Amino acid sequence: xxxxxxxxxxxxxxxxxxxxxxxxxxxxxxxxxxxxxSNPVNAIYTPFSIILYYEVYCLxxxxxKSMTVYIGKQFEVIALITIREIFKEIPKLKISSDLDQMYSxxxxxxxxxxxxxxxxxxxxxxxxxxxxxxxxxSTKGIPDGIPKKKKKYxxxxxFLALVIGVIFVMMVVVxxxxxxxxxxxxxWLQNTGLSSxxxxxxxxxxxxxxxxxxxxxxxxxxxxxxxxxxxxGFVVSTTLIRLSFSVEGLAxxxxxxxxxxxxxxxxxxxxxxxxxxxPSD
Length: 281
Description:
By secondary structure, this protein is mainly α. Helices cover 75% and strands 0% of the residues. The protein has 11 helices and no strands. The longest helix is centred in the middle third of the chain and has 35 residues, at 148-182. The radius of gyration is 21 Å and the shape is globular.
């Protein structure tokens, strides 16, 4: 899968770069979209979109294996979507000695700060889960000796992962067919029909439903209060990420940071709660 993504990303990058070159030479008439093909940096947008698909694949792959990694992959997906915006904003920057003119595009500054904060929060998130991640990565299939309810829980998550994977593939196909039936290749590259915000907004809506189903499944396995609270917190984090697609600008960045911060803090509290020995009476 990694090799396939690498080849696809390279092909997508050079295809987009070639179209930019042909537009600048006048071989292809981009019309009103010509400004979007004035800078080769725009070509980086396409391989990043393809890498996003690999992150979605990893997200679905880890769903039955580890809840913490599954949520971490959600954070990685929204971080990649955010950093991808940088390559959309760079060609719009105007280099000037006049600071007011140079920073007339605050969206670029918001995105830079958001990326740094997200990267640090995701680091903290994984740092708290190193032990459980190692144990999950070293386990293949369903371990022997676990309770019957736990086995059913893992099988249910595997089935859920399969359903989400099928739904996502169908969403991508419908998105591509709908786009090419109404738009040209130039418009597709300019507006990144390969992985539009609408596509990922709909996908995160599916993930919210998935998180709720997992939460309900967990009730059948355990009534452990801290684990129920942690899983409930993950639902809130996914919901905040989904809501970030509904707004733009600074509000969107604040919503994304809040989502990852909330999930990270929930895990931190969960880890400390598990260390408390409650009285048996």
